[in-house]
Write a structure and sequence with these properties.
nine-stranded mixed β-sheet; binds pyridoxal-5'-phosphate; single chain
């Protein structure tokens, strides 16, 4: 068991009304911190009061962006347990992102021990309303105080926690998505498969234009031919065509989403064919014309499942089905929600037990 120091917080916060605070605005009383120094490795694991971080104005991350993150969730399970959904998958993906950005990997025993101890201490922050959870944000950033362009020698790994409501405050709502054929998010051989701030920075401008045009998010096409579907930027994308679930294969430029994995596993378990392959925007438009495009939905930890009502491409809008939530997306959301809370049996082994209430 890694040794984790604990520093008590004498000024505990009042817990907010989670239904009124939006996403990622309030943080719990404690955070987990570990330092890395070249030669010494990861050291001084500790749980300390949530507070600001002090860095040099020459901090490498501020200038060159060598940073990665994760997003997971803790739930109240069967009414009396604190659990984390697919915790180890998230920590393993953090290390995959670390390899892509030449950040030192965090031993899984250390990241899991820190995560579980932090969530255990903060378990009373896990909200209990429908669809509510405690969002978990692990992240690592380079922390050298030099302007030289180099792989850093110093890093911080931190985990902070934020209580969040159901993503769609007014019920599960379908979104309008703009297919982006000018800007690109990532290319094969780049950072697309890493969960890294750079990919978000690259997506903001196109996202703003989509918003101005009345769309909720951007659907990215591949960076080379602008032909094949990639993902939505903070979500993976899935199509249901002629009874089959189709999602773009992992080719190095899209994120290996954990909710995407869950959906594929559950679909197969239900006997619904689910394939990962290249799918072009032309094929999607053709399926719409043929009447075989049954549903489109996004998947991601924040919203879980996000049904798509409208796809806009080259100035034309395509309404999916009757523009309402598809039956398969609804059934998938309901079932994953039950896996989170223990109403459905954990037959896939997704639940990481943390503590009792
Ligand atoms: C986090 C993220 C997703 C969703 O992944 P989950 O593991 O399902 O939360 C999809 N795309 C990008 C770019 C992401 O950063």
């Amino acid at each position: 068991m890694p040794d984790i120091k604990f520093v008590e917080n004498k000024n505990l916060k009042e817990k907010p009304d989670v239904s009124k605070i939006g996403f990622g605005t309030h943080f719990t009383d404690y955070m987990f911190v570990v330092d890395y120094d070249k030669g010494e490795g990861w050291h001084d694991a500790r749980i300390v009061p949530f507070e600001n971080v002090s860095v040099s104005p020459a901090n490498t991350t501020l200038h060159y962006g060598q940073a990665i993150f994760e997003g997971a969730k803790a739930y109240r399970y069967k009414g009396n347990k604190a659990v984390i959904f697919r915790a180890k998958d998230h920590m393993e993906r953090l290390n995959n992102s670390a390899r892509i950005l030449d950040i030192p990997e965090v031993p899984i025993e250390l990241s899991m021990a820190g995560l579980k101890k932090l969530v255990s201490i903060e378990k009373n922050w896990i909200p209990s309303g429908a669809g509510q959870s405690l969002y978990i944000r692990p992240f690592i950033f380079a922390n050298d105080p030099y302007l030289g362009v180099n792989v850093s020698s110093h890093y911080k790994f931190m985990i902070i926690l934020s209580p969040v409501a159901a993503y769609y405050a007014h019920g599960f709502a379908p979104v309008k998505i703009m297919v982006e054929d000018k800007y690109v998010r990532a290319v094969r051989g780049g950072l697309g498969e890493a969960k890294t701030p750079a990919n978000y920075a690259a997506s903001l401008h196109a996202g703003m234009i989509a918003h101005q045009k009345g769309y909720d998010q951007t659907l990215w096409l591949d960076g080379v031919e602008r032909k094949y579907i990639e993902e939505v930027g903070s979500m993976n994308i899935l199509f249901k065509i002629k009874g089959e679930v189709v999602t773009p294969e992992l080719d190095g430029s899209i994120l290996n989403g954990i909710t995407r994995r869950t959906v594929l596993q559950v679909a197969k378990d239900w006997g619904v064919p689910a394939v990962e392959r290249k799918i072009s925007i032309d094929e999607v438009i053709q399926a719409h014309a043929d009447g075989t495009l049954e549903e489109v939905f996004g998947s991601g930890t924040a919203a879980v499942i996000s049904p798509v009502a409208v796809l806009a491409y080259k100035g034309k809008e395509y309404t999916i089905g009757d523009g309402k939530i598809g039956a398969f997306a609804q059934k998938m959301y309901d079932y994953i929600d039950k896996l989170h809370t223990g109403e459905a049996e954990d037959k896939f082994g997704f639940i990481e037990y943390v503590d009792e209430f």
